[in-house]
Design a protein that fits this description.
By secondary structure, this protein is mainly α. The protein has one domain. The protein is about 50% helix and about 10% strand. It contains 10 helices and 11 strands. The strands form 5 sheets. It has a 3-stranded antiparallel sheet, with no helix packed on it. A hairpin with a 2-residue loop joins strand 4 and strand 5. Helix 3 packs antiparallel against helix 5. The longest helix is centred in the first third of the chain and has 42 residues. It starts with 11 loop residues before the first helix and ends with a helix. The relative contact order is 0.13. The structure holds zinc ion (2 copies). One zinc ion binds next to loops. The site of one zinc ion has 6 residues, from loops.
Length: about 350
């Protein structure tokens, strides 16, 4: 039989041990409930998106059958095809949840401090930052990243015939670029495009598939991705600075050892720890993409070491590269997901959807 642990103020080390164990178990419970919530949200997400994906005429409705009902990629659609997302919502939900939770803890426990000057101004600024981060997150994850439509005219070719199709060569700014044939989309991919295996689409100027956003990053949403990462970096630095200020002030007030002080303000310590990791992570991403923008490279090209042995044909100099990414008007989507579906699409799509 083990001796029962008696909490005694005369033995502060035992007391603080008990408190730490309680805090850890509490955090584990919070993490478990967060994971449960995200799981439930995923189920709801899939139910909503699948319901939206089913052609209306099959469900007995009279509404027009649209392209997105039969889209062969793995995307999910909302608002009747106006919003297009990646197939896995977990990353997006987790990112949105952690930003909202951080903002709520900050406003409720850190900014709401009587010793803090201009606390209302600090709270309002934190809320504005949160709103801007969330707007950028929703924008980047719900717009068409630059999906290239599939070639329906080659639908009758079999695998052996498709394998025999060779790649083509194109000269851009005096440098030869190879155009690969995508056997899934049955198209010659335009330069800088690639097939995302997660979304199952060819994407123009494919950068990467971001698991934290749940969407491909390509030609049409890269600018919003930069805005999202930059605003998220400012948000986490802001929260980290004020959380550290609160911990520092508590240490000065109580004059206790650091680890005993944090048990008196666990929310500030948890927020500072989370933001510290987030700042380093997001800062690394922002720095990497600033470098890529200046070089006019995509992350995919950089990781594949595309322009190591040959010069980059798309590099126009730092200023023109920045202008191209940040200020040139974005092209409109190549696919009208809300357009009326043709009978050929309906037939092929129904086969794919196994209806
Ligand atoms: Zn493809
Ligand atoms: Zn993707």
């Amino acid at each position: 039989m083990s001796e029962p642990i008696v909490v005694d103020d005369q033995h502060p080390s035992l007391f603080s041990q008990n408190k730490i164990v309680t805090l850890v178990s509490l955090k584990l419970k919070v993490v478990t409930s967060i994971c449960g919530c995200v799981g439930k949200c995923c189920v709801i997400w899939r139910k909503i998106s699948n319901a939206d994906r089913l052609p209306r005429f099959i469900r007995g409705g009279t509404e027009t059958t649209r392209v997105y009902h039969f889209w062969p990629g793995k995307n999910v659609f909302f608002c009747r095809g106006r919003l297009i997302c990646g197939p896995d919502p977990r990353g997006f939900l987790l990112t949105a949840f952690s930003i909202t939770l951080s903002s709520w803890i900050f406003c409720a426990y850190i900014a709401n401090d009587s010793t803090l000057e201009h606390s209302s101004f600090i709270t309002v600024f934190a809320v504005l930052l949160t709103v801007s981060v969330l707007i950028n997150l929703v924008t980047v994850s719900t717009i068409d990243p630059g999906i290239i439509p599939r070639n329906a005219s080659l639908a009758s070719l079999n695998d052996a015939q498709l394998r025999r199709i060779k790649s083509r060569k194109l000269v851009i700014n005096g440098i030869e670029v190879r155009l690969k044939f995508c056997r899934i989309c049955r198209i010659y991919r335009p330069p800088r495009s690639s097939h995302c295996t997660i979304c199952d689409n060819c994407v123009e100027k494919f950068d990467h598939h971001c698991p934290w956003i749940g969407q491909c990053i390509g030609l049409r949403n890269y600018r919003f991705y930069l805005m999202f990462t930059t605003s998220a970096l400012i948000f986490f630095i802001y929260i980290f600075a004020f959380s550290c200020r609160k911990i520092n002030r508590r240490i000065l007030e109580t004059r206790l050892w650091f680890f005993r002080t944090i048990s008196s303000c666990p929310e500030a310590f948890a927020l500072a720890s989370f933001c510290f990791v987030a700042v380093w992570f997001v800062c690394g991403i922002v720095c990497f993409h600033v470098y890529l923008v200046m070089k006019n490279q995509t992350a995919y090209e950089n990781l594949r070491r595309r322009h190591v042995d040959s010069p980059n044909p798309f590099n126009k100099g730092i200023l023109r590269n920045i202008k191209e990414v940040c200020f040139v008007r974005l092209p409109s989507s190549r696919v009208d997901f809300r357009a009326e579906a043709t009978s050929q699409m309906c037939h092929g799509g129904a086969d794919q959807l196994q209806l």
